[in-house]
Design a protein that fits this description.
CATH topology of the largest domain: de novo design (two linked rop proteins)
Distance between the termini: 55 Å
Number of strands: 8
Number of domains: 2
CATH class of the largest domain: Mainly Alpha
CATH superfamily of the largest domain: Recombination protein O, C-terminal domain
Structural class: alpha+beta
Strand content: 15-25%
Bound molecules: zinc ion
Strand order of the largest sheet: 1-2-3-5-4
Order of helices and strands: EEEEEHHHHEEEHHHH
Largest sheet: 5 strands, mixed, barrel
Shape: globular
CATH architecture of the largest domain: Up-down Bundle
Length: about 260
């Protein structure tokens, strides 16, 4: 999309990397322009007025000047800093994972208002102190849907037969479940998708988040759902999601602390 010489945009900061002595390159997600990379000049100097506003996970308004290569963020105002998310290591690791998935799935400069709104809502739920990891599964499922990778859970991806609830297998390469007679056919590896895993996946795909928070499932069932979604995500991105390992490290450190108490 052609942008004016100067424009204002709402954005969520996904990440930043240092540039030169005092600058940074910001990756931000905006409702109307999608993912943008912007130069923020002088933000690493203590006197910078912009610096405090462009930290990862901040929801901000930015004034931007069109640049030759990358556009330049000139001013920023924090709308919401999700402070309590930052103050808790586990919430922070979840927040970084959410930002990382948006960064990796969203193409540059391709607006997707649903995805922007989903990220903002997910950070809001985290801030309210959501404890359930189902938040992450809900986020993954919605993100897959909004970016064109909605898992097919109702029709066999091979023969298109309608599937009644049962034990099936999930094909990452075909993006959905296969019926028992097609299990041997699809290319690539298949993941087991038990009756209960299928039920949870369908629930996550169909229901709103308030319904998801009321769902209570066993740890082992959650792990099955998590394994299936994260394997599919890794397959789509063709790599490991780094922030996912950070999230796991934090979780096991916290478990170790609790055992030691
Ligand atoms: Zn089939």
């Amino acid at each position: 999309m052609d942008r004016p010489k100067l424009y204002k945009t709402e954005a969520i900061v996904l990440k930043h990397i240092p540039l030169g002595e005092a600058d940074r390159i910001l990756t931000v997600y905006t409702p109307e322009l999608g993912k943008l990379r912007l130069v923020a000049k002088g933000v690493r100097r203590p006197t910078s007025k912009l610096g405090g506003h462009v930290e990862p996970l901040n929801h901000v308004t930015l004034s931007v000047a069109r640049g030759q290569n990358l556009d330049i963020a000139t001013q920023g105002q924090t709308l919401h800093s999700f402070r309590s998310v930052r103050e808790d290591l586990r919430s922070l690791s979840w927040g970084f994972y959410i930002a990382d998935l948006v960064d990796q799935f969203a193409p540059d400069e391709s607006p997707n208002f649903h995805l922007f709104e989903l990220m903002l809502r997910a950070l809001g739920w985290l801030e309210k102190g959501t404890q359930t990891e189902l938040l992450l599964r809900f986020f993954e499922m919605r993100l897959l849907g909004y970016t064109g990778y909605q898992p097919e859970l109702y029709w066999c991806v091979e023969c298109r037969r309608h599937l009644d609830p049962g034990n099936y297998a999930f094909s990452c390469s075909l993006g959905g479940v296969t019926c028992s007679s097609c299990e041997d056919r699809p290319e690539g590896s298949l993941l087991p998708a038990s009756l209960n895993t299928m039920k949870v996946l369908r629930f996550l795909q169909r229901e709103e988040y308030t319904a998801v928070t009321a769902l209570h499932i066993s740890v082992s069932l959650h792990r099955e759902v998590e394994r299936l979604l994260s394997t599919y995500i890794r397959y789509l991105l063709e790599r490991e999601v780094k922030s996912a390992s950070f999230m796991k490290v934090v979780a096991s450190e916290m478990a170790a602390l609790q055992l030691g108490e």
